[in-house]
Amino acid sequence: MPINDVEVTRNILDRFFKEFREHTDVDVAIAGAGPAGMVAARKLGNAGKKVAIFERKLSPGGGMWGGGMTFPVIVVQKESKHILEEVGVRVTEASGGQYTADSVEATAKLLAGAIDAGARVFNTMSVEDVMMKEGKVCGLVINWSAVEVAGLHVDPLTIGAKAVIDATGHPSEVCHIVQRKAGKLSTPSGKVEGEKSMWAEVGEQTVVENTGEVFPGLFVTGMAANAVHGAPRMGPIFGGMLLGGEKVARQILEELG
Ligand SMILES: Cc1cc2nc3c(=O)[nH]c(=O)nc-3n(C[C@H](O)[C@H](O)[C@H](O)COP(=O)(O)OP(=O)(O)OC[C@H]3O[C@@H](n4cnc5c(N)ncnc54)[C@H](O)[C@@H]3O)c2cc1C
Q1: Taking a C-beta distance cutoff of 8 angstroms, is the pair 129, 156 a contact?
Q2: Confidence of residue 104 (pLDDT cuts 50, 70, 90)
Q3: Contact call for residues 225 and 247 (beta carbons, < 8 A)
Q4: Ligand 1 atom closest to residue 61's alpha carbon, by position in its atom list
C-alpha cells in the first residue's frame, strides 16, 4: 500500500481532535503526570471515572525517571510497594526496611497503568488557571506548553471537571493560582505555606496526611501537598508520592460516589 503523506496528517488530526473533544468534560482533571498524578489517574480510571491528565512536558513521569541525582533507582517503604507491584514493577528488599526499584521501569509502568485504566494523558499542555463558579473549582484552563514557553499572548481552552487534582510537584502551581485569585486555601494561613528543607521521615508521612481537598473542588497530592501545607521535602524516596496518589483517588471517589 503506498503511503500518502497527507493521509498521515489527516489521521493524526482526526484521532487527536476526537479524543481531545471527548475529554473536554471529565470526572477528574489532573495537573501534572508525576508519580502521584499517575497513581491517582490509574485508581480513578479503574473505578470507572473519566480522567484526563495535563502534563507540561513532552515526557510524562515528572521527577521519577531520574531516581536520585540521575542514578536510576528509587526507594520505597513496605507500606507503598504494593502500588508498584500492582503494575508489575520488580521491587527488591534492601537494608533499613527499605525497598528499591528501577526508576525507569517504575515510571514507565505507572504511566502505562494509568493509560490502561482509561486515563488520557495530554502532554505538552500546561495548566495556567482554573475555572471557578460559585466558589468551586470546576475545571482547568490549559494552553500549549509551546505557547507558554514562547510567551505568546494566546487565549487558552477550558476543560470541565467534577474534581481537579494539583499534582504539579514542588511548585504546586494550581494551588498558587487559586490562592491568588480566590484568596483562601484550607491551610493554617489560608495561603500556600511553602516547602521546608529535607527531612524524609517526616516528609514521607506528611505528604500522605496533607493530601486532600484544599478548596472546594480542588485536591492536592504528591510533593505539592507538602509545599502547600509547609512540610519538608524528602528526596528520592517515593512511597509517600504513591500513597498520596492512592489517597486522593479514594477521597475523590468518596466525594463523587
Ligand atoms: C523534572 C524533575 C526532576 C526531578 N529530579 C529529581 C531527582 O533527580 N532527585 C530527587 O530527589 N528529586 C527529583 N525531583 C523531585 C521529585 O522527583 C519530586 O519530588 C517527585 O517526583 C514528586 O512527585 P509528584 O508526583 O508530586 O510530582 P513531580 O514528579 O514533580 O511531577 C509533577 C509534574 O507536573 C508537571 N507540571 C508542573 N506544573 C504544571 C502545569 N502548570 N501544567 C501541567 N503540568 C505541570 C511537571 O512537568 C511534572 O511532570 C524532580 C522533579 C522534577 C519535576
Answers
A1: yes
A2: very high
A3: no
A4: 49
Integer Cα distance of 99 and 81 in angstroms = 8
The kind and range of the H/E element at 26 are strand 25-31
Q: Cell for 193?
A: 505555606
Domain limits at 181? 26-256
Angle between helices 35-46 and 239-256 (to 10 degrees): 40
Going by their DSSP bridges, the two strands 218-220 and 212-215 should be labelled as: antiparallel
CB 63 within 8 A of CB 34: yes
- pTM strictly above 0.85: yes
Nearest Cα to Cα of residue 81 among 238, 214, 202? 238
- Express each pLDDT in 121-175 by its tens digit: 999 999 999 999 999 999 999 999 999 999 999 999 999 999 999 999 999 999 9
For residue 66 and ligand 1, the question of a CB distance below 6 A is answered with yes
Index of the ligand 1 atom closest to the CA of residue 142: 42
Grid coordinates belonging to 121: 494523558
What is the greatest pairwise CA distance in the chain?
A: 65
Give the CATH number of the domain where residue 51 resides.
3.50.50.60
Q: Closest Cα to atom 50, ligand 1: which residue?
A: 63
CA-to-CA distance for 223 and 253, rounded, in angstroms?
21
CA distance 106 to 102: 6
Domain count, the chain: 1
Span from the CA of 169 to the centroid of ligand 1 (angstroms): 5
> Does 1 reside within a domain?
no
Given this model, what pLDDT does residue 85 score? Answer: 98
